[in-house]
Please model this.
Amino acid sequence: MAFFGYNDPRNALLTTQTPENAYHATLGEAVAALYAAQRTPRDVPLHLVSTSPFLTKAITTKLAGWEDGGWIGVPHADYLAALANHLRQRCAVTTVRHASTPWEWKAIDWIRDRACPLLLNHPLEVVRPTSNPSFRLSGARLASLTQATAYKGILATRRPPARQGTARNVALALAALAPRQQRSSEELWTSLRHKDIRHQVSDFLWKTLHSALRVGHFWAHIPQYKDRASCTNCRCEESIEHILLECTAVGQQQVWTMVEALWLKTGLAWPGMSLGTLLTLGTKTWTNPGSKRRREGASRLWRILVSESAYLVWKLRCERVIGHDDSPDWQHHELTVQRRWHAAIDARLQLDIASTRHYLGGRTQKSDVVLRTWNKVLEDEIALPDDWTRFGFLVGIAPVRLREHDPG
Ligand SMILES: [Zn+2]
Model:
């Protein structure tokens, strides 16, 4: 957004408005508007023109409800409450609107062009949500308080401090995101509950992000079980990162080799696998190289493929370490790993096909979503009809073999 009213080019703040960072864009608008209100003399007219309807709706229609509810559960509450406080102190005309005329868009572009070099060449300035106590409304209006809102408010005052391991994993995951795909930690947690990720797998990923799995360091301080802290295969301290991405026991490397081989069939680059990439699989959106157009099918395949594969690596490790704890040298056979992985991914494909059919409680997935997801990764795809989700077609994922067993 940009704002006008005080003739100083440094007053121009920029926020970008893309679907990927809508959370940050609305936060940016709230902060930019607050900055404008703080810096513009109260007796000088202020006209806020924003690139999205968020600010207009917030100030004109939602503000009263948020104040009645004591700002409980409102995103960017600190900045919006401070903005309302500053606007109430003003005596000159103040307007806020969503840019609609070509002139306004042109003016926003003009200001963005001039603000960019200033943003790059000047130190960043922190905008603090300051407010005047005489104009501050505090608490929630009892008459408009529901039991659910009150409960949320109580929980917000008692929020426990974040666990060290959780904070570390969240920071690591957010750092793995590209600048255009940045997310808040709330969005990261929600993304692990994506409907494309099976509940069991989602629980596993949630525990991984929370650092709540009983591996490695967890056992280091329990006298009788200290030896469980080490990987029985590699003789180093075990961690979830070691299990999923580094362990040399048969399993993880084979699984990721097959994932990469299948993924490359989509025509998209393999980004490599790290714990951060894994934990952000629910937020990842894929586009064709050099294009901004999203490939929703590929993004969905990514969620299914990576989540199921990570969970399989975890299951294989548990079978080896817990299921065969009496024989520390026991390992899976590579062919078993190959079959198990194919079966896991194929099961998701068959589930997708079944979900497009109108029996057992109705269709839950549209055929074109399923077709787009598995496009290019099916066996003998060229011989299949356009809509292979219909009855009577046998469909499976393209065979991907480990190099050692690949006859070609
Ligand atoms: Zn290991």
